[in-house]
Amino acid sequence: MTLTAKGKIAGVMGWPVRHSRSPQLHGHWLRLHNIDGSYIPMPVRPADIQQALRALPVLGMAGTNVTLPHKQAALAAMDNVTDTAQRIGAVNTVIVGADGKLSGDNTDAYGFMENLRQLAPGWQPGAAPAVILGAGGAAQAICVALQDAGVPRLTITNRTAARAQALAAALDPFCQVVPWPERAAALADAGLLVNTTSLGMAGAPPLDLDLTRLPPDAVVADIVYTPLETALLAAAGQRGNVVVDGLGMLLHQARPGFRAWFGVDPQVTPALRAAVLAD
Ligand code: ATR
Predict the structure, then answer these.
(1) From atom 22 of ligand 1, which residue's Cα is the shortest distance away?
(2) Which residue of 41, 108, 161, 259 is 20 to 30 Å from 176, comparing CA positions?
(3) Which residues of 8-34 are buried (b: 16+ CB within 10 A; e: fewer)?
(4) Cβ neighbours of residue 70 under 8 Å, at least 6 residues apart?
(5) In angstroms, rounded to a whole number, what is the distance separating the alpha carbons of residues 11 and 9?
(6) From the CA of 197, how far away is ligand 1's center (Å)?
(7) From the candidates 6, 8, 71, 101, which is the catalytic residue?
(8) Closest ligand 1 atom to 138 CA
């Protein structure tokens, strides 16, 4: 990685931002492709996010990623947003145009789908319904991704029913809501099960889910990647389901931003996974 006065600068805005893996991830690609550029962490307080985003063209920056808690608020600072970002209601990738205008995209849906295609190539979107555990921001992106992929029906189940209902209403009539205590029964016709809750993450409570009714050919994906093999993935793998871990979604969502800022289409490889995991 070199950085001259002509170098391109991008980064990630979050609060806090120190947990973000994005600097390691983009740093790996910058070194690999020997690019004249840099990717920096930017700790931005919630009250300052609009001002920080509007400063990007003023500072001559190529763009930024936006992470928690700014993804929804970033939408309002954009000059243009993609249809996907609009439907998800959140922006995670900002590109500064040659005219200084800010374009907002949401690449979480793309990241989820690319990871699924890479790790479960046999999964057929149109073959069976999907079940989503959780109704937060990640669930919103994944529901939009699955709708666009042609999944015939989606079942959302969440501890707080009102959040599941709000998400389902936005995607009506594609989604149905099942009460959280009935989640095990909802697995009966699933071709894909996705955990988007924080349950099973190191330091969080375990995900309590009986997989008995899940069809043996269903794919099981978890967005949690600390640990990489969650108890859900271990249990699903033991009964023969194809499993998809959460790290790849993070790696793939970074690709469109890197391509736009630095002009190279980067790949998700075992070396990249190892570099990000080693951190
Ligand atoms: P994100 O936007 O990153 O998806 P979030 O909005 O905090 O994060 O969502 C976390 C998800 O984990 C939610 O679906 C949350 O359920 P609630 O909507 O009921 O809060 C779920 N979750 C977190 N802790 C949980 C717990 N102890 N039991 C069940 N669900 C839990």
Answers:
(1) 197
(2) 108
(3) bbbbbbbbebeebbbbebbbbbbebee
(4) 13, 14, 15, 44, 46, 49
(5) 7
(6) 5
(7) 71
(8) 4
| Residue whose token pair is 């319904």 | 129
Per-residue pLDDT tens for 126-172?
999 999 999 999 999 999 999 999 999 999 999 999 999 999 999 87
CA distances to 56, 89, 146, 187, 193 from 214, rounded to whole Å, are 47, 31, 19, 5, 9
pTM beyond cutoff 0.90: yes
The verdict on whether 6 is a catalytic residue reads no
Cα 39 to ligand 1 centre (Å): 30
Instruction: Give the pair of three-digit tokens for residue 44.
Output: 């931005």
**Atom of ligand 1 at shortest range from CA of 139:** 4
Cβ < 6 A, ligand 1 pocket: 134-139, 158-160, 163, 196-199, 205
How many other C-beta atoms are found inside a 10 Å radius of the C-beta of residue 136?
A: 15
- pLDDT band of 1, cuts 50, 70, 90: low
> Could you give the strand order of the β-sheet that contains 80-81, starting from the edge strand earlier in sequence?
37-43, 8-14, 63-66, 93-96, 102-105, 80-81
DSSP 134-181: --SHHHHHHHHHHHHHT-S-EEEE-SSHHHHHHHHHHTTTSEEE--GG
Collapsing DSSP to helix, strand or coil, 115 comes out as: helix
